């Protein structure tokens, strides 16, 4: 269990069950890989991180620095982000495909359709060109 995020947070479960329902088989939290990815798809040599928007500083409304102990939070989140960057780089050097699903794609008003989510993941996994994919909720409300 990581100190910065629970091993079975709800957003992660949402992604896992959507993938499972679509026939994907995976392993969880392989600690021998950089960043201990939340979901590992060995068949595709791909990993998925389900990131909390606050902890990983997503550029979306879910990221707000708390009013108190700002310095503490900023330095904590900065070091999370630095670690994220290093892990992603290491995984790409090991030729893993990397997918990041942001919490805002899975929760609240910005939640996206799970069928669409799985489809985007599927397309990336089956293609050969793309090595990196981020899926987030729409930042601006669509009119
Ligand atoms: Zn977000």
How big a fraction of the residues is strand? 5-15%
Structural class: alpha/beta
Supply the number of helical segments: 3
Tell me the overall shape. Answer: globular
Uncertain runs: none
Largest sheet: 5 strands, mixed
Strand order of the largest sheet: 1-2-3-4-5
CA-atom Rg in angstroms: 15 Å
Q: What is the ordering of alpha helices and beta strands?
A: HEEEHEHE
> Would you report the number of β strands?
5
On the 0 to 100 scale, the average pLDDT is: 91
Helix-residue proportion: 25-40%
State the distance separating the first and last CA atoms. 41 Å
In this entry the ligands are: zinc ion
How are the elements arranged and paired?
Layout: H1 10-21, E1 27-28, E2 39-41, E3 46-51, H2 70-93, E4 97-102, H3 114-126, E5 132-135
Parallel strand pairs: 3-4, 4-5
Antiparallel strand pairs: 1-2, 2-3
The chain binds zinc ion.
